[in-house]
């Protein structure tokens, strides 16, 4: 790094400052029109209502501060507080129904713990509860940034409080002055940083109009792709604003359409955990902790650092985890591929922006789902309970990501009102987490040591799990921690359900085929908080549950499906010529059939209360990359197609098509075996010894197949 200027170290020099072309300006106008058509701009009446609410809230705050002064026997003559906005509303990129981030700045004798939060008459929380037009009051005093969420005349507001080390606040208070931070605790500094970061962002971008349009588009994309929630470990509003501002700095004269395309292309190639900076970090010797990525510090563990531009500089993406980083980088890569095709459009050709702004098919792309059900006796309790549970879901994700691939969906789903008389009519919300098997990394010559052993994984690296993963323990830890909340009220309940894709509620599914499969599937495995107790199942029961057999007839039928291959291929001298994958499947099916025929069918019978079984282990072996176990989600395997064909249930065209698919699968398995053998042979040549492995030799000697 010697010889480099700070601008080069923090990548602050423009990459391209060329003037925009007429074509780029036209595409920016088309982008704005697309966003307006998508309903991302609020109506004039809603904007007027927001201004009215801010005025009413400011009057309420002034009354509250004077009331605190009277309680403490202080003069009310110069008692005042200031109300500021920040976030999307201050940046000018808010849309219909979005919340307003609001900061209340008061004198030092008005404290957060005793005067802002609380149910005493002088507390702001109590004053808000007594205001007729205020509803859905949700205090979060233990959050990283303490706040109170409310709805004022239908407008959602998140209210923060900062107490400055001043007895009397001046009529005009400039929060960009670093002196306001003197004597403040960390929670107050974080609260003030919302306004300070927003104002600094607007000063650092070369063109605010371009910045606003590009940021509005990126926020819309992130919302559609299900990665727009800082609480869940994804991207929040301030994170996206800093990242878009970075692209605007690198392309200072570019139009919004160009900034949007470059945003995804650059982030696809960004070398995380390299931090994103908008300016050289400042240190004003106020004793406040600042961003410090040196080895051994807490900041050195950050996975996706995006640094705030205002002092004190800090990582705004501190909630990111391995699983959410994987999801976001994959989404950036997919969007970059689409944007690359846009860059190759000919002049005059309009961009189909709908290709980029497509919703994520979350409820159809995963094999298993974890459903977190949050319920309470009334809507008011549900707001409080949901705020606590949603802030802890990322801890469940952290406990799961070592075992499976995890993708949490940040938006809660509210089920439709039940029409049945006996149905549970209590208000509830559902959160979903998609889970799939982790794919083991390929074994290459670079991953082998000279002695033929695999290199050990780096600290913190994800290792492919065993064939079966028991999700009971992570769910138990999550439920135990969440239900131990000190403010939990009677009626607040939490249930954790493990669902297969076909078992998702039908109102969540868009694909009619999946809806039909969900109706035919049995009830999902449920892990209620009250029933999370360890129960052991015999090994054969696990086998039965893994293949989806719920009865003796089911086991017989599925074993017959696996054996439905030509007799000359599975018996006699030609049997070992089959690919190992198919040969192992046939042998396993024969073993299952033998157990059924020997009278062991009771071992495959699922318990009558299986739909409520809390301990059913997650069978990762049944989640084979992109193809889960057929019986688990209502699909049909080629082998079962052959069995149906033998019974005359399929047409000749269907039979020929299935035979062709089976042949392709066999050729693919044979190719994989050949590649494995060639890898061993190449390693033998490199080491000067023969490390080739003959699968036939192992089978002849009685060793298990590779």
How would you characterize this protein structure?
By secondary structure, the chain is an alpha+beta fold. 41% of the residues lie in helices and 11% in strands. The protein has 23 helices and 12 strands. The strands form 3 sheets. Strands 1-2-5-4-3 form a 5-stranded mixed β-sheet, sandwiched between helices. Strand 11 and strand 12 form a beta hairpin. The chain starts with 5 loop residues before the first helix and ends in a 6-residue tail after the last helix. It is an enzyme of class 2 (transferase). Its EC number is 2.7.7.19. It comes from Volvox reticuliferus.
Topology, element by element:
Elements: H1 6-9, H2 22-37, H3 44-71, E1 82-86, H4 87-91, E2 100-106, H5 112-116, H6 124-129, E3 134-140, E4 147-152, E5 155-163, H7 186-204, H8 208-224, H9 237-250, H10 256-268, H11 322-343, E6 368-375, H12 379-390, H13 393-400, E7 405-413, E8 428-436, H14 472-483, E9 493-500, H15 512-520, E10 525-528, H16 539-546, H17 552-563, H18 567-570, H19 580-597, E11 623-624, E12 627-628, H20 630-633, H21 638-646, H22 652-687, H23 695-700
Parallel strand pairs: 2-5
Antiparallel strand pairs: 1-2, 3-4, 4-5, 6-8, 6-9, 7-8, 9-10, 11-12
Helix pairs in contact: 7-9, 8-9, 8-10, 9-10, 10-11, 13-14, 17-19, 17-21, 21-22
């Amino acid at each position: 790094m010697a010889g480099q200027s700070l601008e080069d170290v923090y990548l602050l020099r423009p990459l391209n400052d060329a003037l925009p072309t007429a074509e780029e300006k036209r595409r920016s106008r088309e982008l704005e029109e697309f966003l307006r058509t998508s309903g991302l701009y609020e109506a004039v009446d809603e904007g007027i209502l927001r201004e009215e609410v801010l005025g009413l809230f400011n009057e309420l705050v002034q009354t509250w501060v004077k009331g605190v002064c009277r309680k403490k026997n202080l003069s009310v003559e110069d008692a005042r507080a200031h109300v500021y906005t920040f976030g999307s509303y201050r940046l000018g990129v808010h849309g219909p129904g979005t919340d307003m981030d609001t900061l209340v700045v008061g004198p030092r004798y008005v404290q957060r713990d005793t005067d802002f939060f609380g149910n005493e008459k002088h507390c702001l929380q109590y004053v808000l509860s007594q205001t007729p037009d205020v509803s859905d009051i949700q205090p979060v005093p233990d959050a990283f940034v303490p706040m109170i969420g409310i709805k004022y005349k239908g407008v959602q507001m998140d209210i923060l409080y900062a107490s400055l080390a001043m007895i009397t606040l001046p009529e005009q208070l400039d929060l960009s002055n670093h002196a306001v931070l003197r004597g403040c605790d960390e929670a107050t500094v974080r609260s003030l940083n919302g306004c300070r970061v927003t104002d600094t962002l607007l000063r650092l971008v070369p063109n605010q109009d371009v910045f606003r349009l590009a940021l509005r588009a990126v926020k819309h994309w992130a919302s559609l792709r299900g990665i727009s929630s800082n609480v869940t470990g994804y991207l929040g509003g301030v994170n996206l604003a800093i990242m878009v501002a970075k692209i605007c700095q690198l392309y200072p004269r570019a139009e919004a359409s160009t900034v949007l395309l470059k945003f995804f292309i650059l982030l696809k190639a960004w070398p995380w955990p390299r931090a994103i900076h908008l300016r050289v970090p400042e240190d004003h010797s106020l004793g406040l902790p600042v961003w410090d990525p040196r080895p051994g510090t807490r900041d050195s563990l950050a996975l996706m650092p995006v640094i705030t531009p205002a002092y004190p500089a800090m990582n705004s993406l501190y909630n990111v985890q391995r699983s959410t980083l994987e999801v976001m980088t994959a989404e950036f890569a997919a969007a970059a591929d689409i944007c690359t095709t846009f860059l190759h459009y000919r002049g005059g050709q309009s961009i189909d922006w709908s290709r980029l702004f497509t919703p994520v098919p979350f409820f159809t792309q995963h094999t298993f789902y974890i459903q977190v059900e949050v319920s309470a006796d009334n809507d008011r309790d549900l707001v409080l309970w949901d705020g606590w549970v949603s802030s802890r879901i990322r801890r469940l994700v952290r406990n799961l990501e070592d075992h499976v691939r995890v993708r949490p969906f940040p938006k809660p789903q509210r089920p439709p009102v039940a029409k049945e008389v006996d149905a549970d009519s209590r208000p509830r919300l559902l959160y979903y987490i998609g889970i799939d098997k982790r794919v083991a990394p390929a074994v290459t010559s670079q991953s082998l040591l000279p002695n033929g052993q695999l290199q050990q994984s780096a600290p913190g690296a994800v290792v492919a799990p065993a064939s079966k993963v028991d999700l009971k323990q992570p769910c138990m830890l999550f439920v135990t921690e969440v239900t131990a909340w000190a403010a939990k009220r009677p009626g607040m309940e939490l249930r954790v359900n493990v669902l297969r894709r076909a078992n998702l509620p039908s109102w969540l599914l868009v694909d009619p085929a999946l809806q039909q499969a969900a109706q035919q599937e049995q009830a999902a495995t449920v892990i209620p908080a009250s029933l999370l107790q360890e129960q052991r199942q015999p090994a054969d029961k696990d086998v039965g549950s893994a293949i989806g057999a719920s009865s003796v007839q089911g086991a017989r039928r599925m074993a017959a499906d696996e054996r439905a291959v030509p007799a000359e291929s599975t018996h006699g001298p030609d049997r070992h010529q089959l690919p190992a994958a198919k040969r192992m499947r046939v042998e396993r099916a024969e073993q299952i059939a033998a157990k059924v025929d020997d009278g062991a069918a009771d071992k495959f019978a699922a318990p009558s209360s299986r739909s409520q079984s809390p301990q059913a282990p997650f069978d990762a072996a049944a989640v084979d990359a992109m193809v889960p176990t057929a019986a688990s989600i209502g699909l049909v395997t080629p082998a079962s197609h052959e069995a149906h064909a033998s019974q005359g249930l399929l047409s000749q065209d269907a039979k020929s098509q299935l035979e062709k698919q089976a042949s392709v699968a066999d050729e693919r398995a044979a190719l994989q075996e050949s590649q494995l053998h060639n890898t061993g042979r190449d390693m033998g040549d490199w080491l000067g010894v023969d490390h080739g492995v003959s699968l036939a030799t192992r089978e002849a000697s009685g060793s298990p197949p590779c």
